[in-house]
Write a structure and sequence with these properties.
It is a single chain. By secondary structure, the chain is mostly helical. The chain has one domain. It is about 95% helix and about 0% strand. It has 2 helices and no strands. It is rod-shaped. The N and C termini lie far apart (about 105 Å).
């Protein structure tokens, strides 16, 4: 081998080794990008789960509150009908006072 052939051979060897190192760097970069994407995806899923649970809990509390208000309104209508049915003003006042005391005692609980 003459000197030129030897230099060309060395250059080819250097190019081959630099090509393989750049390929491995590209693979490492791709792997790192995939790991980052997986990490973001995991965090996003956890956040979605937490927010979904909070929304479910808020809907449940609102539903309970609406049901409680509905029952209260029904009881109020029923008691108002009984008050209106009483002819005597004294009996009506006694019933209203008794009802008011019951409401106060239940609200204190």
């Amino acid at each position: 081998m003459n000197n030129n052939e030897y230099n060309n051979y060395e250059d080819d060897q250097l190019n081959d080794s630099s090509d393989s190192s750049s390929e491995s760097q590209e693979e490492n970069t791709t792997d790192n990008n995939n790991d980052v994407f997986k990490g973001f995806f995991a965090v996003a899923m956890a956040l979605a789960g937490i927010l979904g649970f909070d929304a479910w809990r808020a809907r449940r509390a609102l539903k309970k509150e609406r049901e409680k208000n509905k029952l209260f309104q029904e009881a109020l209508k029923k008691h108002q009908a009984e008050i209106n049915a009483l002819k005597n003003a004294k009996k009506r006042r006694e019933y209203m006072d008794k009802l008011w005391e019951e409401i106060k005692s239940k609200s204190e609980e």
